[in-house]
Specification:
565 residues, alpha/beta, Pyruvate Kinase, Chain: A, domain 1, eight-stranded parallel barrel, 17 helices, 27 strands, binds adenosine-5'-diphosphate, binds phosphoenolpyruvate, binds potassium ion, binds magnesium ion, potassium, EC 2.7.1.40
Length: 565
């Protein structure tokens, strides 16, 4: 059997010109025939067409409620026109400063695409409340904020500081780090450590780094389970701060390197995340691809729709060593610069970031740049110039998303920090678009099936055409989100309207560069899909007659160029 695939290139105004391109393809195994030619849109733009909405109930064509788009995105589209919508996505860590409904709403209004909860902190009940509030926000206020659950991982960290929000360690002070369990109050200048082997693994003379070097100690004496240390770099100790130790200038990886990436507590948290139906699970301190594959098969077995994406956090030496296979196995990655900067020399973090961002794009996986983007805004209402430059660099690298940690979790200015990320993203994106100075990136083929390779070629071509023809928007009709991700990977000049039938796919698309996710029920008939979309979007003033659009879909492998009628 030989199936011919036609690319339907149709222009509606000026007068329709058909430029069919035929390619002779070997028999595909996973394809159903997609060579049906489309009738002209112009000939049949009847407003009487009835289409099925979400529940199978026929909805009139002009019913604007049968398309769902984020209310903030909608306002942004109307206000600035869609060429200038923000392409870089924003992730906010939710903590005590932002867990209330109104606070979460303020973040959503400010552009939060994904809410992250860090299982290292807070109770499961607390996290459940946050998840419920985000859900309610989406439901009641028309947002599509995705939820990312971040595991604690088998890291060594301090205890809870007996309930204090922070304690100051001064230069020269002697502190005791202990694995002993203290039942009531902690003795003065004592820190609890969560790792049993701590006292055995450290040696006198080792350097102990809190939070990757925010505070430093030198080990001066070991007494059973207690390790006495002298503070050499004073600073604030925060609850559950991460601990690393260094010997003769390099990171010590003793037995803790043998701890499992996913601890028993993490598995319980993962069960909780699956039960709650979170959209992303981020895995801390990933060392190899196996752990990701293992988790993915666990999720597939446990969750009915198994549509939770797994994000690999790149924050250790091992993860850098096995970078390619880890990213390949995962559904996305995070440049977790906090811990990464404690495991490799700080001056190597920028090049590692660049490499991870590039590789993710080549392998078609979304990538988040995280930690300390606007660290000073935890305390101050304006960022430092250096922080703005750092954010700009991540935007210029065209990472999919930027993340706030302490700035939004426990800082004094969460909304202001988000505003900075938003405005810097918009400005830098526009600057680089105007200058057309992006280096072209070679995008290797990522598809394993022949049909995927066709999709890839279609998306690469559509994105190139969109740039050359300076179209207003790319439209993609996608059931699984795959075609949308392939378009996003090309980082085209125009925004990508991604239409998908499933709410969870729509939320997950929210992490990817340049995608404006809509939920819409659609059929295999592209003509009626397009007619319907145009009518719905026009009814909401999101597009207007004459706008130039390129449409692709994963049901019908075609590229269509058209003016909105
Ligand atoms: N659920 C929470 N409950 C209390 N504090 C939190 C919570 N989430 C985050 N925080 C605070 O925000 C800080 C920054 O968050 P994050 O970077 O995610 O964690 P960490 O500092 O442990 O890497 C944390 O150190 C902690 O003080
Ligand atoms: C994002 C990170 O992980 P966490 O905040 O969980 O330590 C990081 O280390 O940069
Ligand atoms: K974590
Ligand atoms: Mg970390």
């Amino acid at each position: 059997m030989s199936v011919s695939h036609s690319l339907n290139l149709r222009l509606f105004a000026p007068p329709p010109t058909a430029i069919p391109t035929h390619a002779s393809l070997p028999p595909p195994t996973l394809l159903f025939p997609r060579h049906r030619r489309l009738p002209s849109l112009r000939a049949s733009s009847s407003p009487e067409i009835l289409v099925s909405d979400n529940n199978g109930v026929p909805a009139p064509l002009s019913d604007p409620s049968s398309i769902e788009v984020d209310s903030v995105t909608e306002a942004e589209l109307k206000e600035n026109g869609f060429r200038s919508t923000r392409r870089t996505k924003l992730v906010c860590t939710v903590g005590p400063a932002t867990c209330g409904f109104e606070q979460l709403e303020a973040l959503a209004v400010g552009g939060m695409n994904v809410a992250r909860i860090n299982m290292c902190h807070g109770t499961r009940e607390w996290h459940k409340e946050v998840i419920d509030r985000v859900r309610r926000l989406n439901h009641e206020k028309g947002f599509a904020v995705a939820i990312m659950m971040d595991t604690e991982g088998s890291e060594i960290h301090m205890g809870d500081l007996g309930g204090a929000s922070s304690v100051k360690a001064d230069d020269g002070e002697i502190w005791t780090f202990s694995v002993r369990a203290f039942d009531s109050t902690l003795p003065q200048h004592t820190i609890n450590v969560n790792y049993e082997g701590f006292a055995e693994d450290v040696q006198v003379g080792d350097e102990l780094l809190v939070d990757g070097g925010m505070v430093r100690f030198e080990v001066i004496q070991k007494i059973g389970p207690d390790v006495e240390c002298r503070c050499t770099d004073p600073g604030l100790l925060l609850p559950r701060a991460n601990l690393t130790f260094w010997r003769n200038g390099s990171l010590v990886r003793e037995r803790n390197a043998m701890l499992p990436t996913i601890s028993s507590k993490d598995w319980l948290d993962i069960d909780f995340g699956i039960a709650e139906g979170v959209d992303f699970i981020a895995i801390s301190f990933v060392k190899s691809a196996e752990v990701i594959t293992h988790l993915k098969s666990y999720i597939a077995a446990r969750s009915r729709d198994s549509d939770i994406s797994v994000i690999a956090k790149i924050e250790s030496i091992d993860s850098l060593k096995n970078l390619e296979e880890i990213i390949q196995a995962a559904d996305g990655a995070m440049v977790a610069r906090g811990d990464l900067g404690a495991q490799i020399p700080l001056e190597q973090v920028p090049s590692a970031q660049q490499r991870i961002v590039q590789l993710c794009r080549q392998l078609n996986k979304p990538v988040i740049v995280a930690s300390q983007l606007l660290e000073s805004m935890i305390e101050y209402p304006t960022p430092t110039r250096a922080e703005v430059a750092d954010v700009s660099e991540a935007v210029r690298q065209r990472a999919d998303a930027l993340m706030l940690s302490g700035e939004s979790a426990m800082g004094q200015y969460p909304e202001k920090a988000l505003t900075v990320l938003r405005s810097v993203s918009l400005r830098i994106e526009k600057w680089w678009r105007d200058e057309k100075r992006y280096e072209a990136m070679l995008l290797p083929s990522v598809g394993s099936y022949f049909s995927e390779k066709i999709s890839e070629e279609i998306c690469n071509s559509a994105a190139k055409m969109a740039n050359n023809l300076e179209v207003d928007a790319l439209f993609v009709y996608t059931k699984t989100g795959y075609m949308a991700s392939l378009l996003s990977r090309c980082r085209p000049d125009c925004p990508i309207f991604a239409f998908t039938t499933t709410p969870s796919v729509r939320r997950r698309l929210n992490l990817q560069w340049g995608l404006i996710p809509f939920r819409l029920s659609f059929s295999d008939d592209m003509e009626s899909n397009l007619n319907r979309t145009f009518a719905l979007l026009k009814a909401r003033n999101l597009i207007k007659s004459g706008d130039l659009v390129i449409a692709v879909s994963d049901m019908l492998q075609s590229i269509q160029v058209m003016n909105v009628p």
